[in-house]
Amino acid sequence: MSRSLLDRFLLLYPDFRERLRRHLGSADLADEALSEVYVKLSTTDKSYAVRDEPAYLFRLSLNTAFDLNRSARRLATMEQIETVLDLSDPSPGAGRSAEARQEVARLEQAIATLTERRRNILIAARIHGRSCREIAGELGLSTRTVEMELRSALEHCAEHLNRKNNKGMGKDFANDRRKTSIH
Questions:
Q1: Whose CA is closest to 182, among 153, 141, 140?
Q2: 62 within 8 A of 20, measured Cβ to Cβ
Q3: What pLDDT does residue 2 have?
Q4: What is the dihedral of CA 22, 26, 29, 34, to 10 degrees?
Q5: What is the per-residue pLDDT for 141?
Q6: Dihedral (CA of 43, 46, 52, 58) sign
Q7: Do residues 159 and 109 make contact, with C-beta atoms less than 8 angstroms apart?
Q8: Whole-number Cα distances in Å, 36 to 33, 66, 102
Q9: Structural domains of the chain sorted by starting position, each given as residue range(s) with its CATH number in brackets
Q10: Each residue of 80-111: pLDDT tens digit?
Q11: Is residue 98 packed enough to be buried (19+ CB in 10 Å), middle (13-18) or exposed (0-12)?
């Protein structure tokens, strides 16, 4: 830009600083914006005529302040970064994964020790999501018999898991109504 525009900016600098500070509510942001405008004006070699230099220069300063403010909002603060770093990993750790694999293996063992009829009823009800009435119709049993067999199978698995739990602190599946519900 022409030297006269930079000279005009330097002449109006104190007035711009005060107006920007009032408009933005921050002396630091006003100073930073004015410094950016100064660098832009002093490093460019383009030259063109501006009809209202003070209005142009103030608008340039104000837009620069808005851009700086917008950029600052995009950057995470140190507090935000520390908060993210302090978050625990929601995925299970290696210990919990190994524990879960052991529990699944114990459940598979428990299912393997069921009678064939109880095993088929348990798999149909809990794995395939079929109702006791459907299972009863297919096996030629009463719904009540299927319900009793399913309850027995669930209690057997629960006892097996609780008994085999090497820490003695496993879930008590036999007393968990969600796991033993037959409906």
A1: 153
A2: yes
A3: 54
A4: 30
A5: 93
A6: negative
A7: no
A8: 5, 12, 63
A9: 3-75 (no CATH), 96-180 (1.10.10.10)
A10: 666 766 666 667 777 888 888 888 898 899 99
A11: exposed
